[in-house]
Amino acid sequence: MDWAERLDKQMRDYLSDVSVLKEEPMAKHTSFRVGGPAKRMAFPEKSEQLVLLLSMARECGARPLIIGNGTNLLAPDGGLDRLVIGTDRLCRLEMGEEPDSIVAGCGVPLARLADFACRQGLAGLEFAHGIPGTVGGGVCMNAGAYGGELKQVAAGVSALFPEEGVRFLSGEELAFGYRRSFLTEHPEAAALHAVFRLTPGDPEEIRETQRSLMARRKASQPLEWPSAGSTFKRPEGYFAGTLIDQCGLKGRTVGGAQVSEKHAGFIINRGGASCADIKELIRQVQAVVGEKTGVRLEPEVKFVE
Ligand SMILES: Cc1cc2nc3c(=O)[nH]c(=O)nc-3n(C[C@H](O)[C@H](O)[C@H](O)COP(=O)(O)OP(=O)(O)OC[C@H]3O[C@@H](n4cnc5c(N)ncnc54)[C@H](O)[C@@H]3O)c2cc1C
Questions:
Q1: CA-proximal residue: ligand 1, atom 37 (nearest)
Q2: How is domain 3-86 classified at the architecture level of CATH?
């Protein structure tokens, strides 16, 4: 029996209420719309199920991969010999015990979190409204835009560690940096839910800020095409998109992958792109920008294997 068959049996016996798919195309679960089949993909609906599932995965020798909305992921064409865990059903969302705080499950979309905060008259998450990820993926990546970062409002995360069990990590322990956190350095840990500490604000003003940031996004980003947002991290002292544009790479194409004409910082899937196309285009962009400007671009998109 391989790990997947052992896991199937354990899930039939102890987690029969968790839905699990076999050979599930990752293209259906990533915003790039690329990626071959994951051997198993499961969708827990409660934190307790996720905890049990991860312990079963360990016993069965599976290599789990927790994903949110897959908006920062590049999955291989040949698929993943892994247990992918989708968190979109882990969407508890309520006011926290501390004043002006919100508790959100890892699968809550950031847009929904920001809307909830707005309705409660709480400011601080306006920047996150247009980021298409979840709370889990967002905290892991310290998602940010227009001067805001989750680091500014995330008071802590309850996370499951394979050896230690569930532990609450404070904002400080999360050691946020630019598009990284303690969780990016510990991919074996699973964020279950996060606590956000906000400040009272006027719902109308909050809504207006959200609207104007979304309008800026729509005007500058190729949101009509599949992508994973900014392909590269912002290099110190530069903007990746400007460097790529200055190197004449707008519109550069490999197979179905293209450097967006609208925003050179985005690689888009113009239809039928493979992971190999996107990786090759990333390589070419890095090579040309490196050669012409001396700046090394580092991908922000995460390659999963
Ligand atoms: C059109 C577009 C615009 C974007 N704009 C922005 C932007 O303005 N700013 C920005 O920062 N990003 C942006 N992004 C990128 C992306 O939305 C963010 O990085 C987001 O935080 C990823 O969240 P996700 O839920 O999709 O995570 P995924 O892509 O699913 O996963 C990202 C990482 O987080 C890990 N992870 C996910 N959930 C958990 C969990 N529960 N526990 C532990 N680890 C977990 C995954 O294993 C993976 O390593 C954009 C993407 C797109 C497609």
A1: 137
A2: 2-Layer Sandwich (3.30)
